[in-house]
Amino acid sequence: xxxxxxxxxxxxxQSTLIMSSSKEQLEALQDIRKxxxxxxxxxxxxxxxxxxxxxxxxxxxxxxxxxxxxxxNQEQLLGSITxxxxxxLVTVTLLCLLVLVLSIVTAFxxxxxxxxxxxxxxxxxxxxxxxxxxxxxxxxxxxxxxxMIYHGETFIYLVSPAMLLFYGIAxxxxxxxxxxxxxxxxxxxxVLGILALFFLGHGLLFWxxxxxxxxxxxxxxxxxxxxxQA
Length: 230
Known about the structure:
The chain is mainly alpha-helical. It has helices at 2-39, 47-71, 74-78, 83-117, 125-150, 159-174, 181-197, 203-227.
């Protein structure tokens, strides 16, 4: 009887050791996998940069609305190209560029601070892949939108939807190199761009929602999930 109990005890003890060892090995493999995934992703993107980009976009949309009201009315938009129309296009284009530059500079500053805090490099192979995969759709979209503006009032209503669509594609294209929240943001931008195609008179509103409100929500989410505990 004693021998049987001893055999059972040894069996249970060895099984426990095997299970414990297997559990530790599984946890070790999971840690290694997590480290490999993190090493292949750009994790210095700050949530604050998204929030500020959204604020810049909302301010830009507000100023753009004032510019539209100041330079021309609906009848002028549907008529021939006038000097005031050209002036409005130049002003709005410069405004969009200003919003873009401010967003890029802010993202660079916050990302550099986060990378320094985490002891990581801001620019490496992963960063270059992220920038390249986003730059191609953005460049194509920029040329496409510029061509529509160049051809005049016939296509002007399609500029805002096109910007949202190409931006969404760029985000999805680069999402595999950074936080997965970027992919969700990209999908929402594409949905907004499609909706804007059916409400052509409200392009500025969709632009403000896509580049403004969604960026702020995304930035807060990224900060809460990835930056808050860093």
